[in-house]
Amino acid sequence: MSALVIENLVRTYDGGLTAVDNVSLTVAAGETYALVGESGCGKSTLARCAVRLDTPTGGRIVVNGRDVTRLSRRALRPLRGGFQLVFQDPMSSLEPRLSAHDAVGEALRIHGRYRPEAVDALLTEVGLDPSLGARLPHQLSGGQRQRIGIARALALEPQLLVLDEPVASLDVSVQAQVVNLLRELQDRRGLAYLFIAHDLAVVASLAHRVGVMYLGRIVEEGPAAQVLTDPQHPYTRALVDAIPVESPALRRERTVLKGEPPSPVERPGGCVFHPRCPIARPSCAQEVPALEERVPGLRVACPYS
Question: N or C: which end of the chain has fewer CB within 10 A?
Fold first, then answer.
């Protein structure tokens, strides 16, 4: 059974803003699916819809075999233990007046499952000494706060974690530690991850599959090793070319995109990427390219790449 199935998801807002435009993806049990793209492309909106912190305008969301698309808050409550969200900024997502122990134990209390030793075990599992449980968020480092956020998400034993840029606000050395922790937790618990990111170097070290998002649409999707080493869509190619390399000898010719991303309120017709695309044809302004399978497991929304 898939941990997450999203079918033709649409999220629009007043004023004509389309944040997510007909997106479909699947995250298998025990898999990391990374969703990447520039800021403002709709990744975080999709993440919030996936865990029903936001309600989609159209489409369907199935989590752990249960359709949650239109469920009320009351109907969602007993299901939320099976899917949790880890936020980008742990400082703003933690209640400043709650100790680390209480933050992790809050969900357990709500569901009548609180035991002090269970909270201590969660803190230990994410690499923290239980003695840190007495501290408030401002008394912890950024890496420690993010570990608290992960422990809190694990409290009800979910099958799916949606991670919204969980290492973006951390120092590089701490990023590596948190990525290693996520990998260990996945191996131990069999977790599925929908991993939202813009740093492809981080994605390469964790993801099994990658979906590339541009202005609300998926433009390429496939195995991480294939997408990140042999990108097919010109937008994916530009993202991969921007990954820093260790040595000048490894430097490659970069694909330089024209201009800035269009406004999601005034979306271009046809292929949404065509105003910046280095291989655009006149027909690209008229026809919306389908996300078609090139080889088994690899889908690309560009007929000319």
Answer: N
